[in-house]
Amino acid sequence: MALDQPMFDLRELQLAARNHGVPLEALRYPITPVGLHYLLIHFDIPAVDPGSWRLDVGGAVGFPLSLSLDDVRARPQVSVPVTMECAGNGRAGVSPHVVSQPWVLEAVGTAEWTGIPLRGLLEDAGLADEAVEVVFEGLDSGIDGGVEQHYARSLTVGQAMADDVLLAHTVNGDPLPPQHGFPLRLVVPGWYGMTSVKWLRSITAVREPFAGYQQAQAYRMRRSEDDDGEPVSLIAPRALMIPPGIPDFLTRARLVDRGPVRIEGRAWSGRGDIVGVEFSADGGGSWAEAELGESAGRHAWRGWSYLWEPAATGACELCCAARDAAGNRQPPHASWNVGGYANNAVQRVAVAVR
Amino acid sequence: MALDQPMFDLRELQLAARNHGVPLEALRYPITPVGLHYLLIHFDIPAVDPGSWRLDVGGAVGFPLSLSLDDVRARPQVSVPVTMECAGNGRAGVSPHVVSQPWVLEAVGTAEWTGIPLRGLLEDAGLADEAVEVVFEGLDSGIDGGVEQHYARSLTVGQAMADDVLLAHTVNGDPLPPQHGFPLRLVVPGWYGMTSVKWLRSITAVREPFAGYQQAQAYRMRRSEDDDGEPVSLIAPRALMIPPGIPDFLTRARLVDRGPVRIEGRAWSGRGDIVGVEFSADGGGSWAEAELGESAGRHAWRGWSYLWEPAATGACELCCAARDAAGNRQPPHASWNVGGYANNAVQRVAVAVR
User: How confident is the model at residue A296 (pLDDT cuts 50, 70, 90)?
Assistant: First the structure.
């Protein structure tokens, strides 16, 4: 390895061994098979008895609810394909090194989630006028940053009442498997995955902004330890390619046969529709527009492809960069923040053409 | 981290991010949900069109066969629960450090595989008397140890004709997902997972022992680079516990409340039935027999439990060790070989009792 490559300690390895990423060749599937979708499990996967499980909806509401899984399934159902990405995706590439879940680029997936719209449930519960946020708490618990907690996050009332925010009991047509939040999870399209609380046990409307650890300390774009930072929220644009050719087992380096090579991938953004993907075969020195393909839905990634004709044999660095309708383009290199969040620098794939 | 802890490079991290391990709390399930079963994918997951896919059975046989997936499904079917473990499980714990897929302890899973007995297929193909081995080749290809190859492994004729060796198209009642070898894979109960070739494209009876890379170079217990070593074969005994209490996110260290704690886990061996599991709360200084529970099948792991009553608050190291009917017991510390294979040293879980 080059001397400037980062090294990872046993804490990081343990997290990488637990938390699954999508192998990049699986970007070929518009809907990611469930066992290939990325997973970030903060604590342990809880054991849940679906018969005794309840979702409590309370706090600043007129009509507190306690729903069984059958109650949830009896309400009107919707299905929404959603691309979800971990806020820490790309963390292994930031410098100085940030010690946490060390994602390279694989913390993403697209699934079709089926469940009930959150807005209708909050309306039925009679959300009070003075409610400012809605807190979602999971059954999973542990210690993070020295604080013992159940995993919990909040949305403002406006965010919670948005279209297509749902409580999902089904993924890709099957009941949620344990690792995806069985029996019920929140799904917030367009937001990084920390927002989509798994193993839901309660939804609580509150009159003051939620100050829980995962909201007030973690998941903030902090420039230093003293900086409060802005909250991490919508997914920044990213394009990924399926690395072409064949891999070396140990290094994952790619060997590509000369001749036209169809490069394919997916691109997504939570901040605006994808309007372009560019491809470079010289490490970002020159760029060409890729062809955009179909999207699996308005909250799902969009396919793209580029017919690359290698000019010669030898080493080159392939890159891709997405642009969204809000005017965002992926940067060439990672920016840094304390948590190593939202690093959407362009993907770089070293290949040897033969 | 302690100064004697290993560090891992980007090659190892990339492999850890691709290849999924089972989160240890998922040992609670007698049959591992498919998305939690460990995966070791040497190269890329191949894209397979099930309509044009064929399994070719040839070489030293009287009646070469070319089977479609429908042909496979039309034959008599069997279902077998099998505990499968990667030969590299525990590699992160060997010293000196071995650079490859850096499993901690999570490269295991138990699935119910459904398919056709291999023996019947080989009989129908008219295996020749002079055949000595049967070679299984996958559709996945890449470079390993400098050698370009399709992944391939062999069994002796005796091993291939054994009971319960099957060609599986279904796992836990569903068609194989891409990552588990769609549309058809070999499953060899009792053997480390490298034997159970995925994405099968051919089965070839040969008159000389197979000398392919994964058989003759990799997966051998070599004491030095010059040592040919014995082949890695049957799974050594291992017990794992579900780490009790709650975890710290970053370190995965456990905090356990005082009072009786039911420790639960699974134990397995490919070398003989599990006849005992021992538990220690003092790092292996003293041991007590755990209770053995049910097995999910003759090739599947066996549950075990132990009611631990912590003597005091503070730090302690929990261990478990399995024994099998062939007289094997897990060693207290890892032994070393060039490939870092078959390290079945006892699990050690640091906990703080409060």
Answer: confident
pLDDT at A170: 98
Q: What average pLDDT does range B87-116 have in this prediction?
A: 97
Residue carrying the six token digits 């295991």: B108
CA dist A250 and B8 (Å) reads 13
Q: Does any CB of chain A come closer than 8 Å to the CB of residue B148?
A: yes
Q: Does the pLDDT value for residue A153 go beyond 70?
A: yes
Measured from the Cβ of residue A227, the count of other Cβ atoms closer than 10 Å reads 12
Alpha-carbon gap, residue A222 to B243, rounded angstroms:
33
B68 to chain A, minimum CA–CA distance in Å? 23
Domains annotated on chain A, with CATH: 10-218 (3.90.420.10), 238-353 (2.60.40.650)
In this prediction, residues A141-165 reach a mean pLDDT of 97
- With contacts defined as CB-CB under 8 Å, which chain B residues touch A48? none
Contact status, residue B292 vs residue B302, Cβ threshold 8 Å: yes
Q: What's the gap in Å between the CA of A240 and the closest CA on chain B? A: 15
- A7, A141, A255: residue with CB nearest B9: A7
- The pLDDT value recorded for residue A2 is 52
**DSSP label of A299:** B
pLDDT in tens, B233-243: 999 999 999 99
Task: Specify the pLDDT at position B1.
Answer: 44
CA atoms within a 13 Å half-sphere pointing along the CA-CB vector of A181: 29
Which chain A residues in 42-71 lie under 8 Å from chain B, judged by CB atoms?
Answer: 42-45, 47
The tokens of A211 are what?
Answer: 């100050």
pTM of the predicted protein model: 0.97
A217 in contact with chain B, both atoms CB, cutoff 8 A? no
